[in-house]
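Next up, sample data:
>
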Amino acid sequence: MNKNVLKFSIMFLALFIHILCIINSISYATPIQNSNIYRGIDVSKYQGHIDYAKVKASGIQVVYIKASEGTNIIDPYFRTNYDNAKAQGLKIGFYHFVRARNEEDAIREAVFFHSVISGTSPDCRLAMDFEVFDGLGITKINEISFAFLQKLQELTQKECVVYSDEYNARTVFSRELASAYPLWIAEYGVNVPSSTGNWNEWIGFQYSDKGRIDGINGNVDLDKFREDIFLSDSSVIPSPEPEPEPNPDPDPDVSNNIYYFVKRGDTLSHIALWYNTTVENLVKLNNIQNPDLIYVGQRLLISVSDDPNKPKEVKYTVKRGDTLSKIANRYGITVNEIAQLNNIQNPNLIYVGQILRIPLDHSINQMKNVYYRVQRGDRLWRIAKMYRTTVSNIARLNGIRNPNLIYVGQILKIY
């Protein structure tokens, strides 16, 4: 063989090997923390009754169970799936289907999810399934995601994971979210996800929605999980603490402390006005360093004044659809009383955002058969304060077992 040809062949072979090494290094540039793969499924009411002994015998090791959706839907098979899968020694995870449209909704959903799974002992990260956006912008989607996950982790003290299809992982969820929470990705018909978006890797991979597993009638989602899907602490999730409410007192005008949870759009000055106090008092009571910085979900201690010379009234912010007659009926007073106290010349002209002073000099004994329709952001203790009654009384009248769980549109009997 010609020496030049031989030399060229050797150089070409060396270059070819070098290129292969570069390609190989690019393909595996992102290290996998643990290469162990666990076979899994995720289930909900759509799988009906499941024989978990057969599921385990088929080689399944991890079961993710739908627990809840929105603020008031519990999967009817949630507890049965948990008890039966746990009895077979399978690793358990829970997921919640998010319906929130803002951060306040997200926090309420996290509180609800926590209340549903309290008392259980999951083995896997708690999963957020947020995939129906209904016109929400990317920024808002990520704000909702953070609000839900942060509140959930705070309540449960358990790690979380984001469930997402490949498209949303690539185009919707932010780098900041990816840096805070790992990814459980869904993409069907492929051996590995074609992309993980802002995530470097996945810890869960849902690769089919048409799996067939012994013990389950019909199709079921099939998953692969890595070691990082498991919780560092699989102890029992504690039950929710009762929401703080005003200290019991037969006279609602006597000084007492209450708690208020900040809503989107709140300012300290607005809250101070609402509760007939001052920004200075709120800052002092809550050790607030910057009065301009409060956040959604923050709990504020408020001291209700016992000054007998202060007007016995509350502040009400007019909402879309309100009329003076509706507001008057809500508080058991007359339109004229509200109009006079607020110097309203035309009772038919009020506007959204207007703050009205509402007199509370009426005996609650005069308020008979009063009903209230729950609005977005309501809590029982706020409603109780509005009507000068107690949470326990409203709960008793309406057969409410968990005072933390009320829903938009619910009709509550107040008296």
